[in-house]
Amino acid sequence: MGPERRAPAKSYAAILDAVEDRLRTGQLRIGDRLPSERALAEEFGISRNSVREAIRILDALGLVRSGVGSGPSAGAIVISEPSAALGWGLRMHLASSFLPVVDVVAVRRLLEADAAAAAAARREAVSDPEAEQTLARAAEILAALDDPALPDETFHELDAQFHLTITSLGGNEVTTTILGSLRQATVGYVQEGVRLLTDWPQVRLRLQEQHRQILAAVAGSDPPAAAAAVSAHVEWFYRRAFEHLEG
C-alpha cells in the first residue's frame, strides 16, 4: 500500500490561518476592518472568489460581519459572536440526528447548574456592585415574564435572557457562550414541544416559580441550592416539553 495522500489545502485556508494568527498576536482586534478583497487576493496569491469564500466562513463563525457597497459600513469588520456560530453548528447536527437532543439537554443541565452555583458563590465571597446590577436585571426580566399576555415567542426570549443573566454572574465567559449556543440549538424543539402542551399557561406559571427559586438561591449566596434549583428546573421542563414532543 502506498503512502496516504492528503487532500490539498483549500486556498482560502491561508486567510483563515492568517486571521487567527493576527487575532492572537493583537495585529487584529474587534472592530478592525479586514483589507479589501483585492488586497487579500494579492497578499495571499489567491483568487477573489477564494477570498470571498474565506470571508463567508469567517462570517459563519461569528468572527466578521460583512457589509456591501461603500462607506463606513462596507467591507468585513472583525466581531466576536461565538455563541451564534456554535448554536448554528449544533442545530445542524441535531437536525441530522447525529447529536441526540437529550444529550444536549443533559450538558446544558450540568453546565448551567455549575454556573448558578458559581454565581451564588460569587455573591457569598464579595460585595460586588456589578453583581448587584446583574441580579437586579434578572429580577426585572422575571417581572416582565409575569405578564400573562406576553406572546410565547417573547416569553422564550426573555426566559433565555434570564438564564444567561444568571450564568454570566458566575464569571466564566466560555460557560456563558456554550450555554447560549446550547439554548439556540434547541429553541426550535422547545417551541414545537410547547405548541403541543394543552396546559401551557399553567406550565408558564410553574416555570416562573422555578425561576424565582433560582434567583432566590443565587441572591441568598447558597451555591448548593442554586445548582439544585437549576438542575430540577431544566429536567422538569425537558420532561414536559421535549419528551411530550417525542411521545
From TrEMBL:
One of its GO terms (molecular function) is DNA-binding transcription factor activity. PROSITE patterns: HTH_GNTR. Keywords: DNA-binding, Transcription, Transcription regulation. It holds the Pfam family FCD. InterPro entries: GntR_C (IPR011711), TF_FadR/GntR_C (IPR008920), Tscrpt_reg_HTH_GntR (IPR000524), WH-like_DNA-bd_sf (IPR036388), WH_DNA-bd_sf (IPR036390). Residues 9-81 form the HTH gntR-type domain. Signal peptide: none annotated. PANTHER family: TRANSCRIPTIONAL REGULATOR, GNTR FAMILY, UXU OPERON TRANSCRIPTIONAL REGULATOR. This is GntR family transcriptional regulator. It comes from Brevibacterium luteolum.
